[in-house]
Amino acid sequence: MTPATASQTAGPYWHMIDFPEWADLLRPGGPNEGVEGERITLAGRITDGDGAAVADGLVEIWQAGPDGAYEAGFHGFGRCATDAEGGFRFTTLKPGATPGPGNSTQAPHILVTVFARGLMKHVVTRAYFAGEALNAADPVLNLVDPARRGTLVAQPEGAGVWRLDIRLQGEGETVFLDA
Amino acid sequence: MPDPLPYRRPDPATQPPYDAPAYGSTHKRHPQQALLRIPTTLTEASAPRFDPAHYAPQADMSQVAGRAAMGERIIVAGRVTDEDGRPLRGAMVEVWQANASGRYHHPRDQHDAPLDPNFEGRARIFTDVEGRYSFVSIKPGAYPWRNHANAWRPIHIHFGLHGTGFAQRMITQMYFPGDPLLPLDPIFNTTADEAARNRLVSTFDLDITKPEWALGYRFDIVLRGQMATPFENA
Ligand SMILES: [Fe+3]
């Protein structure tokens, strides 16, 4: 067995592979054109241990379609560069519930990854949706210390907009996942 | 539906730590809490299919609209496999790099080196049925960074890989053999295991080299593998 190649930072100049339209999973002419579902915005802000904006981050999302299936009728991948305030914003469809380990059900969620200068490896977290009844029984959310569980739960912020801020370090640090 | 097979967790020596004191940018950006181990679910075991109809391949960085970029033309080729040596077929590989002078085609790169209108510095390729990829480029230049006094990055090409599970997603850097800056580079040196570190260094390959045209470098990439049984999580 050859161990996996070592990860290296994306660095500050990764934007040659930034295609801003990829932040809109419903873009005209894109792979999801015409797919029906509940249109949502997932937005947030990434900050560091000083609370300063992470303005050179690469955020990627991966999610199921509205029916809870991965890559069957809905292409659930998006990429967004953070702006000067550390902000990111995706337009997508709200994912459905998906199968979890055993006979469990995973509540609707979006996997969120962050690459950046200063991150030798990307960090991975999830955005769940506040108020979702299935959250209470979610097999992953239930592994999270209840005091920090909120860092994985996006909050509604007006019509169809969900906010999940990501704190890389320090007080209120986001729970990052190792799957 | 059976549970997905879990992905193997790395020997920590073969991957860099989040907190790498010699690399200053990690100080305020590395998580201080341990990562939370979770089972591999369908979310991590599935991955985007990148349809070339929406993700157009582009394998030649050495020219823009037929106008040749400045610098030494190179061919980079290799194989993408998992830890068990199985090829990743149709995997999307994204690459980006500085030009021959060590300058990125990027508004925030203020290094005092010339930009090249015929070099954009990005490519996108898909592996074939044996996991092989190749692209044409220009040998990048070294560039200064402000990590420490007189700090220069060894010449490198950034690689982004997408596997068959999102748990395999990763970004790395390919280096060049014999670069005197390698032993001085905090980013390269954050990986403790020498063999793992040295696998980031490409090798000159006469079989990839094309006569009268370009030198060839080989860079093989390994993504995480899956364990044999679903019961080894947690
Ligand atoms: Fe670089």
Automatic annotation (TrEMBL), chain A:
Could you tell me the EC number(s) of this protein?
1.13.11.3
Q: Does the keyword Oxidoreductase apply?
A: yes
* PROSITE patterns on file: INTRADIOL_DIOXYGENAS (PS00083)
Query: Sorted alphabetically, which keywords does the UniProt record give?
Result: Dioxygenase, Oxidoreductase
Describe the location of the Intradiol ring-cleavage dioxygenases domain by residue ranges.
42-70
Record family assignment = Belongs to the intradiol ring-cleavage dioxygenase family.
Q: Which PANTHER family does the record match to this protein?
A: DIOXYGENASE, PUTATIVE (AFU_ORTHOLOGUE AFUA_2G02910)-RELATED, PROTOCATECHUATE 3,4-DIOXYGENASE ALPHA CHAIN
What protein name is recorded for this chain? Protocatechuate 3,4-dioxygenase subunit alpha
Species? Falsiroseomonas selenitidurans
TrEMBL record, chain B:
First-level EC class: oxidoreductase
Does the record bear Zinc-finger in its keywords?
Answer: no
Instruction: Give this protein's Gene Ontology molecular function annotations.
Output: protocatechuate 3,4-dioxygenase activity
Q: Name the PROSITE patterns for this protein.
A: INTRADIOL_DIOXYGENAS
Alphabetical UniProt keywords: Dioxygenase, Oxidoreductase
Q: Where is this region: Disordered?
A: 1-30
Where is the Intradiol ring-cleavage dioxygenases domain positioned along the sequence?
76-104
EC number of the protein: 1.13.11.3
Renumbered to this chain, the Basic and acidic residues biased-composition regions fall at 1-11
Q: Which PANTHER family match?
A: DIOXYGENASE, PUTATIVE (AFU_ORTHOLOGUE AFUA_2G02910)-RELATED (PTHR33711), INTRADIOL RING-CLEAVAGE DIOXYGENASES DOMAIN-CONTAINING PROTEIN (PTHR33711:SF10)
The family this protein is said to belong to: Belongs to the intradiol ring-cleavage dioxygenase family.
NCBIfam families from the entry? Answer: protocat_beta
Descriptive protein name: Protocatechuate 3,4-dioxygenase subunit beta
Origin species, per record, is: Falsiroseomonas selenitidurans
